[in-house]
Specification:
Radius of gyration: 14 Å
Distance between the termini: 26 Å
Shape: globular
Strand order of the largest sheet: 2-3-1-4
Number of domains: 1
CATH architecture: 3-Layer(aba) Sandwich
Helix content: 25-40%
Length: 119
């Protein structure tokens, strides 16, 4: 499902803050990232999924380098959960988390697991 996003407050984000869009599958992440990039051309937007081998990114420095200048990151719940649990990403660096609505049982369970572990 595509949606229209109006992001009015991006200029007030600090250089260390990022908006995270979370989706339950890699395919949905890629779809959402493409839609955001087409609608918001003035800022850096990137998907972070298993296709990027994020499970092998084992240092905070690597994460910092990848996220440098990224204002919107689109990822699965697992990617952000793991990055937060290993302290590669700090909660203070997150300006907003947008959760893709989950209509199937799997999405609801993934969100619940993310929320219980991170929030």
């Amino acid at each position: 499902m595509f949606f229209t996003v109006v992001v009015l407050s991006i200029p007030i984000l600090t250089l260390l803050e990022c908006i995270w869009f979370l989706a339950p599958t890699v395919a949905l992440c890629l779809q959402q990232c493409k839609a955001l990039q087409e609608q918001i051309r003035s800022i850096q937007i990137r998907s972070l999924t298993s296709e990027d081998s994020v499970d092998k990114w084992s240092t905070k420095q690597l994460w910092d380098d990848v996220l440098k200048d990224i204002r919107i990151a689109v990822a699965t719940y697992a990617v952000l959960r793991d990055a937060l649990c290993h302290r590669f990403v700090q909660m203070e660096s997150i300006a907003l988390i947008v959760i893709d609505e989950g209509r199937c049982q799997r999405s609801v369970l993934q969100y619940a697991s993310f929320a219980n572990e991170v929030i």
